[in-house]
Amino acid sequence: MLIILKHGTGPKEIEAVVEEVRRVGYRPHVSEGEHTTLIGAIGKGPTPELIEHFRALEPVQDVIPISKPYKLASLEVSPRPTVLRFPTGATGGGEVMVAAGPCGVESLEQTLTAARYVKQHGAQMLRGGAFKPRTSPYSFQGLGEAGLEILAQARQATGLPVVTEVVSPEQVDLVAAYADVLQIGARNAQNFALLQAAGQSGRPVLLKRGMSMTLEEFLMSAEYVLAQGNMRVILVERGIRTFERSTRFTLDVSAVPVLKSLTHLPVWIDPSHAAGKRDWVTALALAGLAAGADGLIVETHPEPEKAQSDAAQQLNEAQFTEMMSRIKALLPALGRRLSQPLEMV
């Protein structure tokens, strides 16, 4: 249920309502707006008697049952967009971030080269896979902890925060020790033990939509992270499986406005995995941003033809530069901007 407090309610009265929420066995989530404070009470569906109990409290203006099965992800609990902030920029609320880098970390030279040029051309986060869950067990599986160490060196050299994938609950602590953001890939989007462990890590979580997931299922997966008390989740539409085979997956551009009508969480696009071919990545990136996406995660490699994974979809530096140039031209027309480092704002 959603508890709406009266305008002007002070901190002591807010805390008293929060304690009462805890006393009756619910978990409180406080959202303070400019004029109104909301308290989401998360738990089993409230009884009419419980709703009336909270309505009778002096600071309470009204109590509304939350209809969505995804409670913490819902706009009913947090009606304002969540903005996630990093030293290099922010995502959400009109701020757009780009995470870019190679599909897989292959060497220090390769990763540093990519990190330097993605930063130069406006990306605010470095992506790179140290652990690679692949369709074939014979494909490149990543460098493991050595890859994490390379990402950490690239972060030190460029200042870019790092997002990298974690593929099992047992890896969460290890990956969290190196990464700034934990990525949950499409194949693990309903690995609930992994989602819970990632939620407990204290790191922001970038959650990709599973290739056969409905949007409600996607939000319920995010709820597993949020339910651990970790509200820093980015949702990523990366293409779903349809009958069409000309692209690797079908980018569900409509997912962006639909999700933004349902949740306060930032919504990103992964045009690389949707396209499967570098020639179409920029067009899909622009389409996602035009639909309202708060960010992009894009694959780029200094020498894509030599990449050990997903070579066909990785942009080279010139293609990445061209994509960023077009993004910078598009965003002002949408009333948004490519986010800047905090010290530049």
UniProtKB/TrEMBL annotation:
Residues 1-68 form the DAHP synthase ferredoxin-like domain. The keyword Ubl conjugation does not apply. Residues 90-323 form the DAHP synthetase I/KDSA domain. It comes from the Bacteria. Keywords: Transferase. One of its GO terms (molecular function) is 3-deoxy-7-phosphoheptulonate synthase activity. Pfam families: DAHP_snth_FXD (PF18152), DAHP_synth_1 (PF00793). NCBIfam families: DAHP_synth_Bsub, PRK08673.1, PRK12595.1. This is Phospho-2-dehydro-3-deoxyheptonate aldolase. It comes from Meiothermus luteus.
